């Protein structure tokens, strides 16, 4: 999206002090998440929340795959809760939570889809 200046894949919300993909998969309580930085002169937090929450789903069986929003301040909380309500995501159980400790995921998880696009034509070629 235009206005997103960076994104980082990581883990948040759990109890394990140093989560990694293996501990998260074993159920340490962390959620796989994306930290997004944006330029508010280009895109509003509300617009980002509309995009994110439109794609969010109700609670899964494992915290690892939970759709959620972690807000940084009271204004973000207010906007996220309002958008969730308008989209009916509050009834689906999509949590809006205060930001928790963030842990960057391993390098091989960063920009995963971009890395896959580089190999996609070769993979598609093999399937033909």
What does this entry look like structurally?
The structure is a single chain. The protein is α+β, with helices and mostly antiparallel strands. The chain has one domain: Peptide Methionine Sulfoxide Reductase, Chain A. The chain has five helices and five strands; from the N terminus they run E-H-E-H-E-H-H-E-E-H. The strands form two sheets. Strands 2-1-5 form a three-stranded antiparallel beta sheet, with no helix packed on it. Strands 3-4 form a two-stranded parallel sheet. Helix 2 packs across helix 3. The longest helix has 16 residues. The chain starts with a strand and ends with a helix. The C terminus is likely disordered.
